[in-house]
Amino acid sequence: MTCEIDEEKPSQPADSFVSVTPVSLGKPCLTSSQCQARDPYSICVQGRCECQRDTPKCSSSNTQCLNDTFQCTNGQCISWYFVCDGEQNCADGTDEENCIPFNCPKEAFQCNDGTCMSRSAVCNGRWECPDGSDEARCYTGIPCDKDSFRCNNGQCLPQYVFCNAVTDCYDGSDESFLLCERGEGCPANSFRCNNERCRSTAILCSGLDGCGDNSDEDRCQVCHCEKPE
Predict the structure, then answer these.
(1) Is 51 helix (H, G, I), strand (E, B) or coil?
(2) Residue 159 — very low, low, confident or very high, per pLDDT cuts 50/70/90?
(3) Rounded to an integer, what distance in angstroms lies between the CA atom of residue 81 and that of residue 119?
(4) Would 203 disulfide with which of 65, 156, 187, 210, CB 3.0-4.6 Å?
């Protein structure tokens, strides 16, 4: 009679079954495995994901996402319009998780009482902040809030109404053909499409083609680091 002896199989490390949350370039990290879950050539350096090899095309300070968009922790980039609006638009929900009172994301609006709101609330004619500070600088005769759009007649409106194909200013200055379609005098805080049209930055990475040539949706994912030599 022979006895069969089972060979002992090597055991897998306990943490091999633990899922790692992907963290993109420039975002806070605890371990390099978080960074590498999103980009294999990135590492965690002093609490932030960095490329092992920085290049002009990709680094934590140049993630290639369009300016004035919000970078989700997972590397997705979305319009500022969605940040702190009460609904999750990042696949990982970080557009709402980071809406911490008195420490709001720069892409959102911080009320005087510290509450975080979407910038779309500013000068929309309704009190969205508990203290009404989103409407405090929206009256004709005073400088408009920096997160709003000022019509030629001094009227203050939400930033997203600029060149959105709907006339909102009483004087129609938000939909000037030369400005919106030809890009003449396109403000520095707006977006110039590849086809020269001028648009509000609210359209960037919104999931819709607001330019007509899709250039507002071209760069809505964080770049990937180059392989180290």
Answers:
(1) strand
(2) very high
(3) 6
(4) 210
pTM greater than 0.85 (yes/no): yes
Percent of the chain with pLDDT over 70: 92
Distance, in Å, from the CA atom of 64 to the CA atom of 220, rounded to the nearest integer, reads 8
The answer to whether 197 and 190 have CB atoms below 8 angstroms apart is no
Of residues 151, 146, 147, 160, the one with CA closest to residue 199: 160
| Residues 6+ away with beta carbon under 8 Å from 229 | 53
Q: Tell me, what DSSP letter sits at residue 122? A: T
Alpha-carbon distance values, 64 to 24, 41, 69, 129, 212 (Å) = 12, 16, 11, 32, 21
Two structure tokens written together for 221: 């994912």
| CA–CA separation, 199 and 174 (whole Å) | 10
Domains in the chain (CATH in brackets) are 101-143 (4.10.400.10), 148-217 (4.10.400.10)
The per-residue pLDDT for range 41-99, each reduced to its tens digit, is 999 999 999 999 999 999 999 999 999 999 999 999 999 999 999 999 999 999 999 89
Alpha-carbon Rg for the chain, nearest whole angstrom, is: 23
